Amino acid sequence: MSARAPDYTPDEIMTVTAARQLRNAAVCFVGIGLPSAACNLARLTHAPDLVLIYESGTVGTRPKVLPLSIGDGELAETATVVVTLPEIFAHYLQRGRVDVGFLGAAQIDRFGNLNSTVIGDYARPKVRLPGAGGAPEIASFAREVLIIMKQTRRSFVPRLDFRTSCGYLTGAGERRTRGCPGAGPRAVITDFGLLRPNPRSEELELVALYPGVSAEAARAATGWPLAVAEHLETLPAPQAGELETLRQLEARTREAQARPIRIALPAAP
Amino acid sequence: MELVPLKEAIAAHVRDGASVALEGFTHLIPFAAGHEIIRQGRRDLHLIRMTPDLIYDQLIGMGCASRLTFSWGGNPGVGSLHRLRDAVEQGWPRPLTLTEYTHAELALGYQAGASGMPCGLMRHHADTDLDLLTVPHRRTLPCPFTGQPLTAVPAVRPDVTILHAQQIDAAGNVLIRGIVGAAKEAALAAERVLVTVEERVARLAADMNALVLPAWLITAASIVPGGAYPSYAQGYYARDNRFYLAWDEIARERAAFSAWMERHVLAAPDHAALLRTLGVAA
After folding, report:
1. Which structural domain range is residue B133 located in?
2. Between the CA atoms of B100, B106, B112 and B117, what dihedral angle is there, to the nearest 10 degrees?
3. Which residues in chain A (225-244) have CB-CB distances under 8 A to chain B?
């Protein structure tokens, strides 16, 4: 007997699982891409009062479609207030008004440190990545951090090529000792399941898997010997309502992105 | 403030070797001004911008820049800026020296520049490799009162800051609304400020606390409808996300990029002509 194929994609269960990590009314600093999809799904399902902040200075934004960039007009039009860049980073993030920072990256190590700067040597990079953006301060100043990344041996590496943003540094309390204000990564959501820091060593360990996914597969997709929690849980599949909301959001987004732009020019003199 | 055609504003105020900040955070990116810089063949520019975006991909790919100060250099939501990558990874069409910050740091650098401070201070974000490579662009020091670790970022003071805005009034005051990024700080930090605007109006549609740049802070202004395209101007036109997605393919290879720039930017006498060749003008 063959197992029934799930009625959701790996991307969908990853986004739904990430959304479920957010409690209602939390203040969340949102990265673009997967974090943005997860945060808006949470807002449209179990967390209607989630306060979303994008680094473009849009505070309390409630976009009807997912923005392609961090600063689409949709974010400004649906925001409580739009503030300047110095303000969003100083008054909101640095001041400690952000509960959850939601990040992705190109590389992560076993202590949740992140690289979004270069692959290879900094001076002669094999791949020049976009760089820091808001990530180092989000990783430091948000009360806690959620990370969402697809798990591969290229992205889950034994040693980062460059440490752009700090997780637990070398673990076992080093982050706290260094006086870093936020608590650090609470969870890493991947396309296999969920990793959380070990309370003592602060090394990430596999604590939960999606239905039908094996710990061996997750370990094989990790560039270091991934620790597995003693009680490995199975994460619940997405509910029909969550999937429907996510699919509608994505359909609205596709439709909005396909809309041609026309600019009225004054008649030539 | 003098109201002049964009061609004249760029010719008079953007010199070879100048440090130039075209600001606007995703919104109100002064594409028309950037294209005019390319048409006039400026060289050896020190480009400054928090998010280089497609406009700096174009300036870098056309060989206008030798140095870039930035904090996030990707095509937002799409991927790499291929011309920026080619310049950094292969030195094409010429090598590009990078000075890189985080968003918070570069915003602070502008703010220090705008405030007449030699540097700006912020709380130290925990140890990263950025600390290792950025001397003398970033230093940590203890707070003189509490001993708490702080990061100091030197003031950023562009020779010229260029902004795109929605409106200019009869007296030359300029209104910016929507996502404003660090536009105000970048303008106030600069020696000279050039502005392109969507339209001239008798009276700005400005609330009391709106972001208005007084005419006497502005060196020159030009009326360029659609001047932020394919970025956007809130209240006028939306961001052309389809173009941002398409740019990934246009800019991936040198030859295709150069041909596109030749056809749409160099061959177009001005921004209105460019909008027509792209089928955007209504």
Report:
1. 119-154
2. -20
3. none
Q: Is the dihedral of CA A227, A231, A234, A235 positive or negative?
A: negative
Whether residue A84 lies within 8 A of chain B, CB to CB, comes out as yes
Residues of chain A found within 8 Å of residue B129, distances taken between Cβ atoms = 117, 122, 162-164
Please state the CATH superfamily assignment of the domain spanning residues A10-258 in this structure.
Answer: Glutaconate Coenzyme A-transferase (3.40.1080.10)
Residue B107 lies in a domain: no
Nearest chain B alpha carbon to A129: B80
Q: Is residue B109 part of a domain?
A: no
Pairing of strands B220-223, B192-201: parallel
Is there a single domain that holds both residue B60 and residue B184?
yes
Q: Strand, coil or helix: what is A107?
A: strand
Residue B185, domain CATH = 3.40.1080.10
**pLDDT digits 0-9 by tens, A208-257:** 999 999 999 999 999 999 999 999 999 999 999 999 999 999 999 999 98
Residue B133 exposure: Cα atoms within 13 Å on the Cβ side:
16
Q: Which amino acid is at A209?
A: L
Residues 6+ apart with CB under 8 A from B90: none
Out of A84, A93, A137, the one facing B180 most closely (by C-beta) is A84
In order along its 282 residues, chain B shows pLDDT tens digits of 899 999 999 999 999 999 999 999 999 999 999 999 999 999 999 999 999 999 999 999 999 999 999 999 999 989 999 999 999 999 999 999 999 999 999 999 999 999 999 999 999 877 788 887 766 788 899 999 999 999 999 999 999 999 999 999 999 999 999 999 999 999 999 999 999 999 999 999 899 999 999 999 999 999 999 999 999 999 999 999 999 999 999 999 999 999 999 999 999 999 999 999 999 998
Same domain, B172 and B204: yes
Amino acid in the structure at residue A146: L
Please judge whether A134 and B103 are an interchain contact, meaning their C-beta atoms are less than 8 angstroms apart. Answer: yes
Q: Which residues of A touch B72 (CB under 8 A)?
A: 130-134
Q: Provide the number of structural domains found in chain B.
A: 2
The ipTM (two decimal places) reads: 0.95
Q: Note the helical H segments in B48-102.
A: 53-61, 82-90
Show which of residues 116-155 on chain B sit within 8 Å of chain A, judged by CB atoms: 122-123, 125-130, 133, 148-149
pTM summary value: 0.96
Could you tell me if B141 and B273 lie in one domain? no
Say yes or no: B12 and B62 in one domain.
yes
* A168-191 pLDDT, tens digit each: 999 999 999 998 999 999 999 999
Inside any domain, residue B111: no
Q: State the DSSP H helix or E strand holding residue B167, giving kind and residue range, or none if neither.
A: strand B160-169
Q: Say whether A55 is catalytic.
A: yes
